[in-house]
């Protein structure tokens, strides 16, 4: 069993959050304290670290964890790449992959709000696999009926979805960006949107509506035959287990 904490959208030191009364550094420290009480093997950060001034502090807080990270539209490649250990692809995108015992892991870069032709070509090659795929990406690939999807979607996402649907294996997409919880399925794709670790956006509101009363993350438990996800949310200063889902794999 492999356990991953998928955490996204902390937006450290951004002026807009400070204006909304969100203390992102304090919330990050509280979240890390909660992680310390759980059996977490790995952390994957899903993008939107925040202001570049916060990067040194952010990565220092994660020194004791086995960390993978991707970047989102609030991140800067030139700054984030300084903390990446490994060989970077050509161009200004941070994407990579790894083979696990039971899964193929793919980490994508949508910091530009789209992906380059080079990254799409790379993705097609990495999808040649006989294992289920776990894809970490900041932006959702499948459309969600919510105002933020209509205003700030990933450009070219249909092309990415079509590439994923061409393979025989199941694909599990873990993403953030929308600051809400959501699960969608389309053909072989299961998309799991994780709540933000800073503030939430009300899914069914007419226009963009912010909720700064709660923040959280998602725990993934991966075995050969199933994936279990557990959302953990902080409400009134206390972290509580929330939604749990199980996805079975056919072997």
TrEMBL record:
<dbReference type="InterPro" id="IPR004843">
    <property type="entry name" value="Calcineurin-like_PHP"/>
</dbReference>
<keyword id="KW-0479">Metal-binding</keyword>
<feature type="domain" description="Calcineurin-like phosphoesterase">
    <location>
        <begin position="3"/>
        <end position="180"/>
    </location>
</feature>
<dbReference type="GO" id="GO:0046872">
    <property type="term" value="F:metal ion binding"/>
</dbReference>
<protein>
    <submittedName>
        <fullName>Metallophosphoesterase</fullName>
    </submittedName>
</protein>
<keyword id="KW-0408">Iron</keyword>
<keyword id="KW-0378">Hydrolase</keyword>
<dbReference type="InterPro" id="IPR029052">
    <property type="entry name" value="Metallo-depent_PP-like"/>
</dbReference>
<dbReference type="GO" id="GO:0016787">
    <property type="term" value="F:hydrolase activity"/>
</dbReference>
<dbReference type="Pfam" id="PF00149">
    <property type="entry name" value="Metallophos"/>
</dbReference>
<comment type="similarity">
    <text>Belongs to the cyclic nucleotide phosphodiesterase class-III family.</text>
</comment>
<dbReference type="InterPro" id="IPR050884">
    <property type="entry name" value="CNP_phosphodiesterase-III"/>
</dbReference>
